[in-house]
Design a protein that fits this description.
Mean pLDDT: 94
Radius of gyration: 44 Å
Low-confidence stretches: none
CATH superfamily of the largest domain: Immunoglobulins
Structural class: mainly beta
Shape: elongated
CATH architecture of the largest domain: Sandwich
Helix content: under 10%
Number of strands: 48
Strand content: over 45%
Number of helices: 0
CATH class of the largest domain: Mainly Beta
Length: 419
């Protein structure tokens, strides 16, 4: 083996940081490459080539490769040229708080030799060269709310064709409602200023489950679960509000009973809901249909049922602390009788009769009714929603209306005659 030799540099000139191919012989065991007095970084090498990065330097300097067998002596030179001026094409983000302190990433080209970054003439608090195409800078405090120009400087020149917007922090003036259940899930309306581009909303330090920007002065947010009392904070590129109303997590409504729990599909039945924490009730819905509230206290609610189709639905008690849906209510259709067989019997009673009709499944009584007397059947059996069996009571001779009673009320009458 012999000392290394250099036959060619490609390229033979360029700015600091240029990747240079050194061609020659005996280069495989290179231990150092120098450009003048500066050491270059070896990227890769083989017996006939080495890739290096041109180190800091100026003018025309000799390039020397050193191995264990010596150093190259050929007069091969590299000429440093002035780097191109910086070009910036993208800022991220393009706005920030008037107080500064946020990280701004600047993308472009020819940024590896950046010597300064400024915002509207004010030097960045600090900056770091990430690559030839990217610089990261900490924005300084702005002089006033508004748009300024960002400048990047290197030894060749300055680029400043991108704008940055200093924004005021948002303010929060009202939160409606201002309290809710610990389980969260309810929607609040936040009123204030500077909400455009809001990036976060929190309640007592916990991020909102979701939020929507309605306008620069209004945001709606779904409250997360939580406890205690704490601020509602809106965050934008301009920062976060530091003052404003608080939100209170309360225990919420507890519903223990609804009486009665069954009524007619025609609605109009009055029921009483009992429990605790009911004073803040704003509405009571049967499924999705609102009832009519007649009274409210901390321990009870009076409400009139709406009309509804038959079926069982949750009773949704909506309060300022959230919604309680632990109780249910069953709407049943009124009973209808269409026939009785036989339709006559002795005054001694004891006659077995069959009744047909509709909506009879919840029958709680069968009665023989005259203008002066109401006599219950000796016994009755619910066969199906369409059929009943009953045993007639003893009664004075005459014509009686036979009627069934269910949770939905009293049926029409079918005629039965005692003889």
């Amino acid at each position: 083996m012999s000392a290394p030799t250099i036959s060619k540099l490609t390229p033979s000139s360029g700015p600091v940081g240029t990747t240079v191919l050194i061609s020659g012989t005996n280069l495989g065991s290179a231990t150092a490459v120098t450009f003048g007095a500066a050491s270059a970084t070896i990227l890769s090498n083989s017996g006939t080539s080495i890739f290096v990065t041109a180190p800091t330097g100026t003018g025309t300097v000799p390039v020397v490769v050193t191995t264990a067998l010596g150093s190259s002596t050929q007069p091969v030179q590299f000429t440093y040229s002035s780097p191109p001026g910086p070009v910036i094409s993208l800022l991220s983000p393009t706005s920030g708080p008037l107080s500064g302190g946020n990280l701004v990433t600047i993308n472009g080209s020819n940024l590896s030799t950046t010597t300064a970054v400024s915002f509207g003439g004010t030097p960045a608090t600090s900056f770091a060269i990430l690559s030839n195409t990217q610089v990261a800078a900490i924005a300084p405090a702005g002089a006033a709310v508004g748009t300024i120009q960002v400048n990047v400087t290197n030894p060749t020149g300055t680029s400043g064709n991108l704008s940055y917007n200093y924004m005021a922090a948002p303010t929060v003036t009202a939160v409606t409602p201002a309290s809710g259940a610990k389980s969260g899930g309810n929607t609040i309306t936040i009123t204030g200023t500077g909400f455009t581009g809001a990036t976060a909303v929190s309640v007592n330090g916990t991020p909102a489950s979701s939020f929507a920007i309605i306008s620069p002065t209004t945001i709606t947010a779904v409250v997360p679960p939580g406890v205690g009392t704490g601020p509602v904070v809106v965050t934008t590129s301009g920062g976060s509000n530091t003052t404003g109303p608080s939100y209170i997590y309360s225990a919420g409504a507890v519903a223990s009973d609804a009486t009665p729990a069954v009524g007619t599909t025609a609605g109009g039945d009055t029921l009483t809901i009992t429990g605790s924490g009911l004073a803040g009730t704003t509405s009571v819905n049967f499924g999705t249909t609102p009832g009519t509230i007649t009274s409210v206290s901390d321990t009870s609610i009076g409400v009139v049922t709406p009309a509804s189709v038959a079926g069982t639905v949750p009773i949704n008690i909506n309060t300022t602390s959230g919604t309680n849906s632990s109780l249910s209510y069953s709407f049943v259709a009124p009973p209808v009788l269409s026939s009785i067989t036989p339709s006559t019997g002795t005054t001694a009673g004891g006659t077995a009769v069959s009744l047909t009709g509709q909506n009879l499944a919840s029958t709680s009584g069968v009665y023989f009714i005259s203008p002066s007397t109401v006599i219950p059947a000796t016994s009755f059996t619910v066969n199906s929603d369409l059929s009943l069996s009953a045993v007639t009571p003893a009664a004075a001779a005459g014509s009686y209306a036979v009627q069934a009673v269910t949770a939905a009320g009293l049926s029409n009458g079918v005629s039965y005659t005692f003889t």
